[in-house]
Amino acid sequence: MSDLWYDLEAFLQQGTLGLVNGAFYAILSLGLAVIFGMLNVVNFAHGAQFMLGAFVAWMLLNWAGIGYWAALVVAPLIVGLLGVLIERTMIARLYKLDHLYGLLLTFGLALIIEGLVRNAFGSSGLPYRVPEAFRIPPVDLGYMLMPAYRFWIVVVSLIVCLGTWFAIEKTKLGSYLRAAVEKPQLVQAFGVNVPLMMTATYGAGVALAAFAGVLAAPVYSVNPAMGANFIIIVFAVVVIGGMGSILGSIVTGYILGVIEGFTRVYYPEASATVVFVIMAIVLLVRPTGLFGRA
Amino acid sequence: MTITRRTLLAGSLAGASLPLVTPLRHARAQAANTIRIGVLNDQSGLYRDLTGPGSTQAVRLAVQESGVTTRGINVEVAEADHQNKPDVGSTVVRQWLDRDGFDVIVDVPTSSVALAVNTLVRERNKVFLCSGAATSDLTGSACSPNTIHWTYDTWMLARGTGGAMVAAGGRTWFFITADYAFGHALERDVSNFVRAAGGEVLGSVRTPFPGTTDFSSFLVQAQRSRAQVIGLANAGGDTINSIKQAAEFGITRRGQRVAGLLVFISDVHALGLQTAQGLVLTATFYWDLNDNTREFTRRLGRMPNDVRPSMIHAGCYSAVLHYLKAVEAMGVAAAKASGVATVERMKAMETDDICFGKGTIRADGRKIHPAYLFEVKSPQESRYPWDYYKLLQTIPADQAFRPITEGGCPLVRT
Fold it and tell me: Which of A84, A139, A190, B323 would you label with B116, given CA atoms 20 to 30 Å apart?
């Protein structure tokens, strides 16, 4: 085996694995971008809601006997409804105030949710097995063995991301949404229920986070800190992609996952910080982010 | 006002550093016959279940069972969260020792924090009873006349799990190492063992700590090395994620073995027996080892989140029990006056408790007791909740820890 092939193999392996992490970054940053774009709220509770998705999936399985496939739909619904409740009772009261209040509120919520889950379940986490259908030997790609479930993550995240992008950019409902972002009063004058749309948007963004949480449950430890580990990176992804840019956050999510993967081979100690280095560079060169408009 | 990138960034930074506020129970006026015990550990992060509030519970049990409070000695127990950060831990310990008049610091998992506390306690001539941290440097290059390393260390883990793997034919190794003092020490100690047995270390990869969730990249690198054994020089949540993902990638099916070099009972619980079965691990305490350990578990009562006590919890109990015996023997005033004298006294007395049996404390501060090599049961073998381990081998006390002459501790006259 030549050295070149050996290097190329490592490159392909880490690129492929990076796509899987990128899939999580993409779904999470997409949810953040949707919420930010529509509500102008920086949703710091996003990581906690991601974690809740995984825990609800665990509860459904262990307490109600509801398996992975149903949980993929039910868990986001439950957590999404919780999001609706949070938006109606708390966040909706802050729209008229400085946006820092929304940030502080959601950050506080994240700490409370994580604390409650930690008190109830401890910090080590809970077991959640890969669903039956994927308990097959890893797929041989020629350059590596890839567990079937990780393929599923990449495929389903692409579908969800593109679906969300399509719904916002290409459908009538999406055009209402975008119009309401620009001129809420005018859109309301045309008879569109803007507050309802905002509530639904927040619920949908939260449901996206919970969906990612269910996807993550079989591969990462289901523990109270699982969201906190992700969320800071995901915020960097949103900043790099351009605030509120749907497509930007999706593309940036995948790209950064791949770059992080490469770092894990060539300079593993820096793999936790590389995203922030890129963020700093992007902010210097393109202050509005890669896909953002000034 | 629309939110600007600047406020978002400021918010992110605040988010990263905000949980620094640590509640402390302030001690009141100094009392000459009051011993103050500070339990410092991870109360909110990945090591919470194996140390955390359970350690405080074990310390309180030790205080109660020592009976010193009925003989006129007041004992106060406080706890704090060091968040696995040396700076946070140092701040708490400085406040405890300099302002609040604490006499002894207990537990302190996370080797980087423990090494910092080791120095602070020595400078102030107090006592450090380390149960949670693993680095064997605490009784080696960093040994202190004020510190006793109680429960386990990286050399013992290397001797136990590493030795068993080498004996089973694992001659080539690759390490996935948590990138801080503990991971480095564990990798070093296991590597020495492997090389001494004629084996070879093919490579290692350092993973950022804390905050690594996905270990697949590192596991694939380990796979590429074609080493017979992949040594996990990490702990807690990192070990759980590594083992879970190694199973997912089918690493063991291709003939490589995964060695969890430090595996706690809470980790096995979190993994589930389905994933964890067959793991070989070394510990100095298992709640279901014998009648005494079961009795300890019963006396301890219900633990947070219904976990069973880890060896770290048992070590906190055992250490404080012995400490209070020494305090009573020498008198509170003398104990408060000099940490070195207290530790000297503790070293002069034989230890004896239901968790570890009879034992001794060496001149370098190493507490000596047997270690046990366990294998995790399969779901079929497990008959009741937390019935997780079967005993493979008992490593006698005189072989379980690094020989005193090999640690390089300046306190030891050679």
Answer: B323
Interchain proximity A271–B208, CB inside 8 Å: yes
pLDDT at B7: 52
Task: Give me the number of domains chain B comprises.
Answer: 2
| Bigger pLDDT: A179 vs B401 | B401
How many other CB atoms are there within 10 angstroms of residue B164's CB atom? 19
Mean predicted confidence (pLDDT) in B378-396? 95
pLDDT over 50 (residue B30): no
pLDDT tens, position by position, A84-101: 999 999 998 888 888 889
In this structure, the answer to whether residues B359 and B375 fall within a common structural domain is no
Classify residue B411: in a domain, yes or no: no
User: Is B252 in CB contact (< 8 Å) with chain A?
Assistant: no
CB-based contact, B3 to chain A, within 8 Å: yes
Q: Are residues B124 and B224 in the same domain?
A: no
Confidence class for position B29, pLDDT limits 50, 70, 90: very low
Chain A CB contacts of B307 below 8 Å = 122, 124
- Statement to judge: residues B139 and B173 lie in one domain: no
Element (H, E) at B312: helix B311-330
A99 touches chain B (CB under 8 A): yes
B279 and B301 share one domain: no
Residues 211-230 of B with CB under 8 A from A: 211-214, 216-218, 220-221, 224
Give contacts of A 155-194 with B, CB under 8 A.
Answer: none
- The reply to whether residue A123 touches residue B220, judged by beta carbons under 8 angstroms, is no
DSSP state of B380: T
Domain assignment present for B177? yes
Q: What is the mean pLDDT of residues B78-91?
A: 95
- A88 in contact with chain B, both atoms CB, cutoff 8 A: no
Residue B126's Cβ-side half-sphere holds a number of Cα atoms within 13 Å equal to 25
pTM: 0.86
Range of the domain at B238: 155-283+371-394
What ipTM goes with this model? 0.85
Asked if residue B311 and residue B164 are part of one domain, the reply reads: no
The beta-strand segments (E) located in B303-395 are 351-353, 357-361, 367-368, 371-376, 389-395
pLDDT at A136: 85
| DSSP string covering B78-140 | EEEE-TT-HHHHHHHHHIIIIIS---EEEE--SHHHHHHHHHHHHHTT-EEEE-S---GGGGT
